[in-house]
Amino acid sequence: MADILRYRDDEPVDHPAVTVDSFVGQTNASAVRIEPGDDARELIAHLDRIQLVEVNFPAFGDGRGYSSARILREAGYEGELRAVGDVLVDQVAYMRRCGFDAFEPDQPLDKADVEAALDRWPEVYQQAADSRVPIWNKRHA
Q1: Which position has the higher pLDDT, 56 or 7?
Q2: Distance CA 93, CA 95 (A)
Q3: Minimal CA–CA distance to 17: which of 34, 4, 5?
Q4: Domains identified in the chain and CATH numbers
Q5: How far apart are CA 67 and CA 46, in angstroms?
Q6: Is the pTM of this model over 0.90?
Q7: Roughly what angle, to the nearest 10 degrees, separates helices 89-98 and 64-74?
Q8: Using CA atoms, how far apart are residues 104 and 8, in angstroms rounded to an integer?
Q9: From CA 35, how far away is CA 62, in angstroms rounded?
Q10: Closest among 59, 54, 111 to 77, alpha carbons compared
Q11: Which residues pair with residue 4 across a beta bridge?
């Protein structure tokens, strides 16, 4: 559990994330930050050199970052995908289904609450960007 939660005062990032526009124009950047309104598809041609993607959630009600995560995972991105900003414990399980594997919330989250949120539903009904097998596929396998 401690592996997926990060906070601003944790270990420093070796390579600070740059904007999508800056990333596409650079050859040495390995971390990128997606802001609401950025098109994650611009990064698909560069997935081989990206080590970290931060997706900013400036407000908990802004769901555009979910789409960015799923686009990148479905395109084959295997590096760290970190949700940053106004991340609430209620969203963590859904973010995980979209492909996020790390979280850097503005406000600390209780680790037990995060674990409970991730373990709340042992079965899923639809395919997503994570590796969970939908229950209908298990039933007909």
Answers
A1: 56
A2: 5
A3: 34
A4: 18-139 (3.20.20.70)
A5: 18
A6: no
A7: 30
A8: 7
A9: 11
A10: 54
A11: none
